[in-house]
């Protein structure tokens, strides 16, 4: 049951070009400005679906970038180390960042800078077992102050797999029926994905 004190989706997000964004952090003008953002060949982009290990990857790569100055990197925020391309804070000039620049993003392909398609910049795409990502998103969703609370996992799952919505061990959260339903939807929607997820460590034992 939704928490009556929670804000509605429209109170804290807006839809732009088919994608939902948080109102307090992003504007349509900011998204439009990315179209002509100049990409450098040395740029590296961490691209993920939410709750797929973005922050972990940011931490790992920034420590690699820091090399012998890893201790100094520890005192910087994640945003300072690897800022979100679409969450540009006021006063921040990404063009002034020294190369090699590291960015993170949840943006779909059609909203990324057009020059990214013609440059040698590297894109690191992180994929997580989608069931784990969904369970992680469920817990994250319920601790966020601005998000509508959904205590019932079945209701959350229905919204998630049907694209109606805005951590942990999925085997202890999904029922057998829910797991089978998710597999069916995933196989239908991702049939052309050239990746195989191992749901069970013994699955490929033979």
Automatic annotation (TrEMBL):
<dbReference type="Pfam" id="PF00685">
    <property type="entry name" value="Sulfotransfer_1"/>
</dbReference>
<comment type="similarity">
    <text>Belongs to the sulfotransferase 1 family.</text>
</comment>
<protein>
    <recommendedName>
        <fullName>Sulfotransferase</fullName>
        <ecNumber>2.8.2.-</ecNumber>
    </recommendedName>
</protein>
<feature type="domain" description="Sulfotransferase">
    <location>
        <begin position="41"/>
        <end position="168"/>
    </location>
</feature>
<dbReference type="InterPro" id="IPR000863">
    <property type="entry name" value="Sulfotransferase_dom"/>
</dbReference>
<dbReference type="InterPro" id="IPR027417">
    <property type="entry name" value="P-loop_NTPase"/>
</dbReference>
<keyword id="KW-0808">Transferase</keyword>
<dbReference type="GO" id="GO:0008146">
    <property type="term" value="F:sulfotransferase activity"/>
</dbReference>
């Amino acid at each position: 049951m939704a928490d009556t004190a929670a804000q509605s989706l429209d109170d804290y997000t807006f839809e732009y070009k088919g994608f939902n964004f948080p109102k307090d952090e992003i504007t349509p003008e900011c998204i439009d400005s990315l179209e002509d953002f100049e990409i450098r060949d040395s740029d590296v982009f961490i691209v993920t679906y939410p709750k797929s290990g973005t922050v972990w990857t940011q931490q790992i790569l920034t420590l690699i970038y820091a090399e012998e100055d890893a201790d100094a990197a520890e005192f910087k925020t994640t945003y300072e180390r690897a800022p979100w391309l679409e969450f540009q804070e006021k006063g921040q000039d990404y063009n002034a960042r020294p190369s090699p620049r590291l960015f993170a993003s949840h943006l779909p392909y059609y909203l990324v800078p057009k020059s990214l398609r013609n440059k040698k910049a590297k894109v690191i795409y992180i994929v997580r077992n989608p069931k784990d990502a969904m369970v992680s998103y469920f817990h994250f969703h319920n601790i966020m102050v601005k998000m509508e609370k959904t205590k019932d996992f079945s209701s959350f799952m229905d919204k998630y797999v049907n694209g109606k919505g805005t951590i942990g061990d999925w085997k202890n959260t999904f029922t057998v029926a829910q797991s089978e339903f998710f597999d069916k939807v995933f196989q239908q929607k991702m049939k052309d994905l050239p990746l195989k997820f191992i749901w069970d460590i013994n699955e490929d034992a033979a």
